[in-house]
Every structure is written in structure tokens, then in C-alpha cells.
Amino acid sequence: MMLNKLRRTRIGTNKGTPRVWIEGRWVAAAGFTPGARYNVNPTADGGFIATLDKAGRLKVSKKTVKGELLPILDLRRPEQTPGQHLMIMVSDGVIQFTPEISE
Fold it and tell me: How far apart are CA 77 and CA 80, in angstroms?
């Protein structure tokens, strides 16, 4: 079982649409393996949460690096602001993205 693990990322863009791209072993450790289904929903704090769901609308993508198959989550988020930083909390079956509060 994987307990909460904190990461940080920045919202980028692809063809003018804000997106978050995460990949790697830490994504797989949360259960988001290539081909797994999941849903993404907004949260009250302006972030969003990805939750594994066998009937999910989205599917985890993949790529191979040096013979190792790695999962990819490519999340298009038009309501987010490019360049904004997000804190990512990872636990079993859940990846939560929370906007960083700048002071």
C-alpha cells in the first residue's frame, strides 16, 4: 500500500489548451498502470482529482523507455491557468492536484 506522497508540477499547454502531463513509476505505484481507466473531477479548492474507476471515461496511456513500460496521464484542463504550479498528492487509486497558493 502506498501512503501519501507529495509532488509538484506546473500546468503547461498543448495546442493552446492548458494541460498537466505526469508519467513514471510513481504514477504506476498509485495503481495508474497503462490501460487502467479513471475519471477526473474538479475539487472545491480549484484543483482536480483523478480516481481509478473500471468504468472510467479516461484511460492511462503508456510509453516505453529503455524497455520499461511507463504510464502517462495527459490531462487537458481548460479551466486551469498555464504556468500555475500544482501540488500533487498521490495515494492508492487517487491522484489529487491542488493549486499552490502564492504569497
Answer: 6
Distance CA 44, CA 72 (A): 25
Domain borders along the chain are: 5-99
Residue 25 β-bridge partners: none
CB 87 within 8 A of CB 101: no
CB-based contacts of 41, cutoff 8 Å, min separation 6: 48, 49, 51
Give the span between the Cα atoms of 91 and 80, in whole angstroms.
23
Q: How far apart are CA 98 and CA 43, in angstroms?
A: 8
pLDDT, tens digit, 9 for 90 and up, residues 10-42: 999 999 999 999 999 999 999 999 999 999 999
3-state DSSP call for residue 27? helix
